[in-house]
Write a structure and sequence with these properties.
The chain has helices spanning 4-19, 61-64, 82-91, 104-117, 154-164, 184-188, 190-194, 203-212, 230-236, 239-246, and strands spanning 72-76, 96-101, 122-126, 139-145, 165-178, 216-225, 252-260. The chain is of the alpha/beta class. It is globular and about 55 Å long. Mean pLDDT is 87; it is low at 23-28 and 30-36.
Length: 262
C-alpha cells in the first residue's frame, strides 16, 4: 500500500470524479460495482435535499447527534452538503453549519447547492480533516458519514476533533470498521480502499483511538453488518480470495459512535 500522501491523492482524485458524476455507483463508499451496499435512506428526514445526496454514506449520524437550536455543527467530509443541510434543519437559523472536505470538486458542488437554497448560515471549507482549517473550541457538535475510514491517520483525526469541539461538545460519527481480518488481496486493493472497506480498521482499535484522544462517554449508537454482494467480490478478486472472505462474511461493520469532550 502506498504512503499516506499517495493514498490521500488517490482518494481526492476518485472523489473528485464522483462529484462530477450523476451517480456515486461508478465508484465510492456506497458502491464497489453495480450495487449500493452501504448508503441509508434519507427520504422523509427534515432538511434533506436529494441533489446534495451522492449516496456516499453508511449511516445517519445527524439522527443521533443531539443537535440543538443555535448549535455550531461541523461535518467532516461534507461532500455535496447532504448532512450539512440536515444539520441546519436541526440547528435552525441561529445555528452555524460548517462543512469540511478536501476535494475541490466537492466543495464547488456543495457551495452551488447552498447558493441555490440561499442559506446564509451554511459554509463549506476546503481542507484535511486530520488538520482542520478552523479554530479550536469552535463546534458544539461534529458529525461525519463514512469518511474517517478513508483517512490513513485516524488517530490524528480524533485528536483534531477533540481540539475543535467546545468543552462539553460531542460528536456522532458513522463509519466502517472491521471485526476480523480481510484477505490480503482485498486488503491491498485501492478499489476497495476507495469503497471504504480496506481503509477501515479494527473496531476495538477505532474505539481505542477515540479514548486516547481524551473523549468520555463513548457509545455505539448503531451497528450493522455490511453485506458485500458476491458479484462485486467476484468481479474484483480471485476465486480463492472470495472463498477466503466468505468464511467470515460479517467482518465489515457500519457503526455510529457518540463521544463527549469534557
Amino acid at each position: 500500500m502506498e504512503n499516506e500522501l499517495e493514498i490521500k491523492e488517490k482518494v481526492k482524485e476518485r472523489y473528485g470524479q464522483i462529484a462530477t458524476e450523476t451517480s456515486c455507483c461508478s465508484s465510492g463508499c456506497c458502491c464497489t460495482g453495480s450495487s449500493n451496499t452501504m448508503a441509508e435512506d434519507y427520504n422523509g428526514i427534515n432538511g434533506y435535499n436529494p441533489d446534495a445526496d451522492l449516496g456516499l454514506g453508511c449511516g445517519l449520524p445527524t439522527k443521533f447527534a443531539k443537535i440543538k437550536k443555535g448549535d455550531t455543527v461541523i461535518d467532516l467530509g461534507s461532500g455535496a452538503g447532504n448532512d450539512c443541510f440536515v444539520a441546519r434543519a436541526e440547528a435552525g437559523e441561529t445555528g452555524r453549519i460548517i462543512g469540511i472536505d478536501f476535494t475541490p470538486e466537492m466543495i464547488e458542488k456543495a457551495r452551488a447547492n447552498v447558493q441555490r437554497r440561499g442559506f446564509t448560515n451554511v459554509e463549506f471549507v476546503q481542507g484535511d480533516i486530520d488538520n482542520m482549517p478552523v479554530d479550536s473550541n469552535l463546534a458544539d457538535v461534529i458529525v461525519s458519514n463514512c469518511v474517517l475510514n478513508l483517512v490513513p491517520n485516524k488517530k490524528a483525526v480524533f485528536n483534531e476533533i477533540y481540539r475543535v469541539l467546545k468543552p462539553n461538545g460531542h460528536f456522532s460519527i458513522s463509519d466502517i470498521v472491521l471485526t476480523g481480518d480481510l484477505p490480503n488481496e482485498i486488503r491491498a486493493a485501492f478499489e476497495m480502499y476507495a469503497a471504504c472497506i480496506t481503509g477501515a480498521v479494527d473496531k476495538e482499535l477505532y474505539l481505542q483511538n477515540i479514548k486516547e484522544a481524551g473523549f468520555k462517554n463513548i457509545t455505539i449508537q448503531k451497528e450493522e453488518t455490511i453485506i458485500i454482494p458476491n458479484d462485486i467480490l467476484e468481479n474484483n478478486f480471485s476465486v480463492d480470495t472470495v472463498k477466503s472472505f466468505n468464511k467470515n462474511p460479517n467482518v465489515v461493520k457500519s457503526i455510529t459512535v457518540y463521544a463527549e469532550k469534557q
